[in-house]
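Sequence and fold
=================
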Amino acid sequence: MATEKELTVYRKIGEVKLMLDDDLAPAVVKTHPYSKMSYISAHTAINNANRIFGYAGWSYRVSRDPVFEPNSKLWYATVEITVTVVDDANVKYTFTREDVGCQPVAVNRKTNEITAEAHDTAIKGAVSDAFKRAFRSLGNQFGNSLYGEDDFGGETGAEKPKGRMAEVAKEAFQKDLHCQNCGNLITGFDTEKRSLTAEQFLTIVEKEFGKGTILCRQCYREAKDAKKAAEAA
């Protein structure tokens, strides 16, 4: 059980840096049985955060509402972590990290349906993935050493997405684009005629509403309808 001192004291910058630079213990590294990807669990990330920053030295929050991408059947979540450390004069320094995680929804093979429980599980998985990705930017102790520089894949142990699902996931992690109106994550999508990436879709948005405009598909439709109504008035 944590003592009162452990719950209230911030860790020194130098001490934190030394611990962050340590190699990740092999015992906490897991391997997915199918994809053979190495990863750490959310449980390990929490334990390492408590050990390195102290119980009072970090926190996290889901910074945007989770978003479901129906074409790829992926849930996306955005998590922000906050870390506080002190220098030798006990001056506090606080910084944040934010990242996006995703998790596919399990489809019932017999009925081809998705249950509410499956959605709930996928949302939790996406939050867990985003949580670990945000911490991963802090180095070895949070699994950064397990991945190549071009690796964008999730860290929950799920098999790497393939095809269109992989494009959507990579796009979200690289761009992290959110609608300026509703805040939802902007991803690519399929139409009857073609597939559009988020970047291609935003090119269409900018042609319609000006450079720098960032709207999701729904808000784009609503804005376009409003524009037509105003022009017709």
The CA atoms of residues 107 and 113 lie 6 Å apart. DSSP finds seven helices and seven strands in the chain. The first helix runs from residue 4 to 8. Residues 152-175 have pLDDT under 50 and may be disordered.
